[in-house]
Design brief:
globular, binds alpha-L-fucopyranose, 771 residues, eight-stranded antiparallel beta sheet, nine-stranded antiparallel beta sheet, 24% strand, alpha+beta
C-alpha cells in the first residue's frame, strides 16, 4: 500500500537547512561536541534523552543507527530481597568480628544474612532504529554534532551535490524522540527505516506509516512496546516491518517506547497503550522542536561558564580530547565538560522519571557491566554531585523519589536483618528497590547506603532553603534513616565507643566492625537531622538523643604512618592503590574534616590519598578531583582533571586506568556515567565552595585557569554567584540572594558578612567591598 503525506512545506524545510549546513566549526566556544566522521563504536555515538527515553545517535552515512532505551525495561519482577530471619545471626556475626574471626563472620553471613536472591536485576537495552540510505556512497563535508544548548544531535553531509541533514532530539514535554531527515534538493531523500532489538523475544510489525517493536526480557516479567510513525512529503510504502520512503524532501520519524512497569510493586501497566498514546498525542515536528528547545533551555540556560578558547578549542571533540593529554592549554574544554554533565543530567533525570543509573539511561546491552543498576556506595550519589551547584535542583528529584521507595523496602530489611526501626539500604539497588545485602558478604554488608542517599535531601534543602520540602519530604526520610542507626550502633568492647558493625569500608578489607566512613556518614546524618529539627521546631527529644549518640561514635583516628585510619585498628596498607578512598568521605562530600577546623586530620587525609596515588577508575579520578579541591590544592586537582580526560579512543580496551571516550562519556573503563558528574562537580568546587557556611570564592583556582567567568553557580544558603577572574585574581562578584539569608563571603584571607533581602543582587569588588 502506498501513502502520501503532504503536511510539510518544502520551502520551510529548506530554509532552516541551508543555514545549518553553512555553519563552520570555527565557533570554538560553542557548546557542542562535534566530529568529522561517523561513530565506529557505541562510545563515539551522541546521547540524547528526556529522562525516561534515551538514545545514542551513531551518524552513519549509509546506515544510521539510533540505539534507544526506556528507563523501566529491567530483568526481574517485584520482590523483596530481604532474608527472612537474618537478624538471628546478627549478634553472632558481631561477636566473631570482635574476636578477630573475619573469615568465619563472612562465612556465617554468606549463609544466613544475604539478600534473596543474592544478585539484583539488570537494566536492559530496548531496541534500535536503522535508517538505510543505500544511495549515499559519494559523501563529502561530513559533520555530526551534539548541540548542548539546544539538546539536539545533528548530522550533515553531501552526497554528490545534494546536502542531507538529520536532527534528533528527545522531548520531555512530548515524551517522544523526534528524528527529522532533510535533503536540500526537492525530492532527493530516499531511505528505508526499520526497528530491531537484541532481545531473543521480539516481534516487529508494520502498518501503513507505522512500525511496532515488541520485546520481552529473558528473565523477568517486563515487556516493552516501541512505536514509530513516519510523516513525509515523499512516497511511503510498507513491506515486512520496514517502511520505504521515496522522492521525499523531508521526513519526520516519531518514536515512543513504554513498558508494563508501573512501580516497584506493580507491573500491570499496558505498554502498547502507553506507547500508542504518546504517538497519538505527539505534536507536529515544528511545535515539538520549539517546545523542546524552550523546555531544555529553561534548565540548561541558568548557568554559564566561560573559560578561554585556545588553538585546540577549535578542533573536533575527539581530536581535542587527544590533544589535551600533552597540551592541556584548552581551558574551554573544562567548560564544555561541565556543561556536558549538566546536559546529561537534564537528559537522564527529570521530575517523574527514575534516577540516573550507572550509565545514566544509556545502555546497549542485555548484560551491561554491574547490570547498569544503582551502586550506592559511591556511584549513584556521585551522579548527583553537580546538580545543585549546577543550578538544576529539579533534576535531583528522581533521586528523592527513589529514596522514598527505598525507605519502604529498606524498613523491611531493617526489621528482618537487624530487628531495627527505621530503614537502610546496602551497597546496591535496582528498579525493584532492593535494599538487602547482595553479591558477597565481604562487601555487600555495608549499612550506610540509605544514610548517604538521605544526605542528598538535606543538601537540596541547604541549597534551596525550601522549608516545605524539608518538612514534607526530606526530614521524614532522614529521620527514618537516622532511627535505624539509633538501634543499630553498638558498643565496641575494646574502646567503649559506638561503632557500625557489621559493615565494610566500601569494597576494601572485607567485613569489619566500625569502618571510618560509616561513622563519618552517620555523624553527618545525625547532624543534618538535629539541624532540621531545629529549623522545623520539632522532635527536640529525638535531636537530643542523636546529639548524645553522635558524641559517642568512634572518632577519626590518625595511624602510625600519619594516615587517616580506614578502620578502627591501624592496619591500613600504605602500598594499596585501591580505587575507593572511602575513609576520606569526611573531606568530600562530607565536611567534618577541613583545613581550617581540623588541620591534623586534613594532613592525615592527604597522607592517605597520597598513599593511594593519582591513578584510578573514572569515578575514582573524579572523586580525587573533589578531594584535592577540598584540600584547597587547585594544582593537584588539575592533575586529576588531566587524568580524567585521558583519551580512551578504543572502548574495547577495558584494562588500565580511567579516562574519557570520544563522546566524552566517562570510562571506568567500561563506560560509567558517574565520572562525568563527579568530574564536573570537582571543577565547580575549584570555583566556589559553600559547605562551611560561607561563599568561598575561587578557593582552589589552578594556574591553568587564570581567567574566566561563571554565572548562575549556586551556593548553600540559596545564593547564586556570578563572578569574573583575571590573572588568577577575582575581579568582581554578584551574589543573588534567593532566600534572604545573611551572606558570608570569603576570598583568600578576606571575609565580609552582610544581610540580604530575598531576590536582591549584591555586587562586590575584588576586595569584597559592597558596591
Ligand atoms: C563499585 C566500584 C566499581 C564499579 C561498581 C559499579 O563496585 O567499586 O569500581 O564502579 O561499583
Amino acid at each position: 500500500m502506498i501513502f502520501r503525506f503532504l503536511q510539510l512545506s518544502k520551502a520551510t524545510l529548506l530554509a532552516g537547512f541551508v543555514i545549518s549546513l553553512c555553519m563552520t566549526p570555527s565557533h570554538a566556544q560553542d557548546l557542542k561536541l562535534w566530529y568529522k566522521q561517523p561513530s565506529k563504536q557505541w562510545e563515539d555515538a551522541l546521547p540524547v534523552g528526556n529522562g525516561s527515553l534515551a538514545a545514542m545517535v551513531f551518524g552513519g552515512v549509509e546506515n544510521e543507527r539510533i540505539q534507544f532505551n526506556e528507563e523501566t525495561l529491567w530483568t526481574g519482577e517485584p520482590r523483596s530481597y530481604a532474608h527472612k530471619g537474618a537478624s538471628q545471626y546478627l549478634a553472632q556475626i558481631r561477636t566473631l568480628l570482635n574476636e578477630g574471626k573475619q573469615k568465619e563472620a563472612e562465612e556465617l553471613a554468606s549463609e544466613h544474612f544475604m539478600g534473596v536472591p543474592l544478585r539484583q536485576m539488570a537494566y536492559q537495552a530496548f531496541g534500535d532504529v536503522h535508517i538505510d540510505f543505500p544511495e549515499h556512497r559519494n559523501v563529502s563535508d561530513y559533520r555530526r554534532e551534539l548541540d548542548l544548548e539546544k539538546g539536539i544531535a545533528q548530522v550533515y553531509y553531501k552526497n554528490g551535490n545534494v546536502g542531507f541533514k538529520r536532527e534528533v532530539f528527545a522531548s520531555y514535554p512530548a515524551k517522544a524522540i523526534y528524528i527529522k531527515l532533510t535533503a536540500d534538493q526537492s525530492g532527493k531523500l530516499n531511505f528505508a527505516v526499520r526497528m530491531d532489538a537484541i532481545h531473543a523475544q521480539k516481534n516487529i510489525t508494520g502498518h501503513a506509516n507505522e512500525l511496532t517493536l515488541q520485546v520481552k526480557v529473558e528473565n523477568g516479567v517486563l515487556e516493552g512496546v516501541a512505536k514509530m510513525k513516519v510523516v513525509t512529503d515523499g512516497k511511503v510504502s510498507h513491506e515486512n516491518g520496514k517502511i520505504n520512503v521515496e522522492n521525499a524532501t523531508a521526513a519526520i520519524l516519531i518514536l515512543s517506547a513504554a513498558t508494563n512497569y508501573v512501580d516497584y510493586q506493580n507491573v500491570n501497566g499496558n505498554a502498547a497503550a502507553k506507547s500508542a498514546a504518546i504517538l497519538k498525542n505527539a505534536p507536529p515536528f515544528d511545535k515539538a522542536l520549539k517546545e523542546h528547545i524552550a523546555d531544555h533551555q529553561r534548565l540548561f540556560g541558568r548557568f554559564a561558564l566561560h573559560l578561554p578558547v585556545k588553538a585546540n578549542s577549535a578542533l573536533p571533540t575527539d581530536e581535542r580530547l587527544v590533544k589535551f593529554k600533552d597540551n592541556p592549554d584548552d581551558p574551554a574544554f573544562l567548560a564544555l565538560y561541565v556543561q556536558y554533565a549538566r546536559y546529561l543530567l537534564i537528559a537522564s533525570s527529570r521530575p517523574g522519571t527514575h534516577a540516573a543509573n550507572l550509565q545514566g539511561k544509556w545502555n546497549h546491552q542485555l548484560k551491561p557491566s554491574w547490570d547498569s543498576k544503582y551502586t550506592v556506595n559511591i556511584n549513584t550519589e556521585m551522579n548527583y554531585w553537580p546538580v545543585e551547584m549546577g543550578n538544576l535542583p529539579e533534576c535531583h528529584r528522581p533521586l528523592f523519589a527513589m529514596i522514598a521507595d527505598l525507605s519502604k523496602t529498606g524498613a523491611a530489611v531493617a526489621k528482618e536483618h537487624y530487628n531495627a526501626n527505621g530503614w537502610l539500604v546496602h551497597h546496591n539497588t535496582d528498579v525493584w528497590r532492593g535494599a538487602a545485602p547482595i553479591n558477597a558478604s565481604n562487601h555487600g554488608i555495608w549499612v550506610t547506603g540509605g544514610a548517604w542517599l538521605s544526605l542528598h535531601l538535606w543538601e537540596h534543602y541547604r541549597f534551596t532553603q525550601d522549608k516545605t520540602f524539608l518538612e514534607k519530604t526530606a526530614y521524614p526520610l532522614m529521620k527514618g534513616a537516622a532511627a535505624f542507626f539509633v538501634d543499630f550502633l553498638v558498643k565496641d568492647p575494646k574502646t567503649g565507643m559506638l561503632i557500625s558493625s557489621p559493615s565494610n569500608s566500601p569494597e576494601n578489607g572485607g567485613l569489619v566492625a566500625g569502618p571510618t566512613m560509616d561513622h563519618q556518614i552517620i555523624r553527618a546524618l545525625f547532624k543534618a537531622c538535629i539541624e532540621s529539627a531545629d529549623v522545623l521546631k520539632t522532635d527536640q527529644d529525638f535531636a537530643a538523643k542523636l546529639e548524645k549518640l553522635s558524641s559517642q561514635i568512634a572518632p577519626n583516628q590518625v595511624g602510625k604512618a600519619g594516615q587517616l585510619q580506614e578502620w578502627m585498628t591501624d592496619i591500613d596498607d600504605t602500598t594499596s592503590h585501591h580505587r575507593h578512598v572511602s575513609h576520606l568521605w569526611g573531606v568530600y562530600p562530607g565536611e567534618e574534616i577541613t583545613p581550617e577546623k581540623t588541620p591534623e586530620l586534613i594532613q592525615a587525609a592527604k597522607k592517605s590519598l597520597g598513599f593511594r596515588g593519582d591513578d584510578g577508575t573514572g569515578w575514582s579520578l573524579a572523586w580525587k578531583i573533589n578531594y584535592w579541591a577540598r584540600f584547597l590544592d587547585g594544582e593537584h586537582a588539575y592533575t586529576m582533571i588531566r587524568k580524567l580526560f585521558n583519551p580512551i579512543m578504543d572502548a574495547s580496551v577495558k584494562k588500565g586506568g580511567g579516562g574519557s571516550y570520544p563522546n566524552l562519556f566517562d570510562a571506568h573503563p567500561p563506560f560509567q556515567i558517574d565520572g562525568n558528574f563527579g568530574g564536573a562537580a570537582g571543577i565547580l568546587e575549584l570555583l566556589a565552595q559553600s559547605h562551611l557556611g560561607e561563599l568561598h570564592l575561587l578557593p582552589a583556582l589552578p594556574k591553568a585557569l587564570p581567567e574566566g567567568k561563571v554565572s548562575g553557580l549556586v551556593a548553600r544558603g540559596a545564593f547564586e554567584i556570578t563572578m569574573e577572574w583575571k590573572n588568577g585574581q577575582l575581579q568582581r562578584v554578584d551574589v543573588l540572594s534567593k532566600a534572604g539569608n545573611p551572606c558570608h563571603v570569603r576570598y583568600g584571607s578576606k571575609r565580609v558578612t552582610f544581610d540580604t533581602v530575598k531576590g536582591k543582587h549584591y555586587k562586590l569588588n575584588a576586595d569584597l567591598q559592597l558596591q
